[in-house]
Amino acid sequence: MVMDRRNFIKTTSLVMAGLLLPSIPLHAKTYLSVEQARALLWGDMDMAPISVELTKDQIKKIKKASKVRVRNNKLQAWKTADNGWFIVDQVIGKHENIDLAVGLTSEGKVKGVEILTYRESYGHEVRNPKWRSQFLNWRPGQPNKILKLDREIKNISGATLSCRHVTDGINRLTHTWDQVLQHL
Amino acid sequence: MNTLTRCKPLLGTYVEVSITADMDNQALLEMSSAAFAEIEQIQQLMGFHDPDTELSQLNRKAHLKPCHVSPHMVKVIGRALELSELSGGVFDITIAPELIKQGLLPDLHQHVSGSWKNIQLEGDQVYFNRPLLIDLGGIAKGYAVDCALAVCALDADVVINAGGDLRMSHWQDKQVVIRHPELESGEMISVDMQNNALATSAPYFVEDQQPFGTTAGVKNDMKVGINNGQKSSMICPFTRQPVNYRQSVSVFAPSCMLADALTKVAVLEPDFEPVLQTLGAEALVVNYPDSRAIQPDYALV
Asked: How far is B189 from chain A, CA to nearest CA, in Å?
């Protein structure tokens, strides 16, 4: 009886875990660290972290001006000695989740953008053995390794992915500068 | 050996530069910055979206009088015209008006239409003998990758990947991964790299999958169906209609510009073999598992 109950709990939690993991990371890549991006964008210029918390009104204005949803009211930002900004932000698209670093000049112009991490995830994964099997001998005598889901995948070719969400994110940050940061 | 990999949003996609070399971090950063600067320069010359690019100026003025252009523009337009000639017009950089109609390019100009035959390139001058619009979206991305690689040190192991159009300095013994045409499935397959460069064309990530086109396809080819109101960046230059194809087409070629451009030829021209062979390229075609393919499920040509 006890065992049955344990099994039940085990099974249920496994099912629950499945339900609670809405997305499967397909491929994740890490590029520069925050520190590397900072050095690349600002060299050794002094900067101080500034705590930025957007008010509801500010969020509304930024959204209106940039036409981009503001998901987070807190901003990870540093102000440089020459009134520029270094911002570490996150962009969430339909399939991707991206950390990026953006440098803004004292006039609010984009000084540079670096992607720090790129993660792709999918709500559901359809295994497709038939398609995969087509590659098994895609050229006679040249067997190919079949990749399983691999987080270390290096070079992918496919239909071009649009970077629109990142462009939107940068747009949102320049409007955040316009509405808020330039007055800080 | 030291490796650095950076990624920036450029050319409308994510451009990744990865360098492995016997140098310190600072030197790697500088080399990658030089590579990105090349890509930005090509974007500033050949972008369609920005009214200030050299390309936009051509679209506004080149039908009025011959315009001087940069050496980069000479190379890309020259190569594009060569490919149009070789492919009997299958590759054509004048399909921009059709992309505008679909909302895939911004409407910056008057709607006009011509073909590659109306473009004249002499020395460093470009002239359109009738008003037309060119878009280098099918070739400039690959060219930008080539330019970026050209500024990197010869002994460095460099990989540049512009959202799937990629080139490697040391491609032998390397593997690449090709995505399933239906992105949602998340399938990835690795194959051995066959040449300096690789580019893949696959249908836009369409949310609602439509059945394979029922109208007769281009040149009666089953693999290309006339689009049923769906958006597609692949335009048939003969019918001027967007085509909805159900394949992933990857082209290995000596340069990324060629690989990029030849994917369009391989999608639109059933008999693409001779053109690709002439240029030292080969294609890997993968049909959708459920497509009513009359070709073998895969083919390396």
From this structure: 6
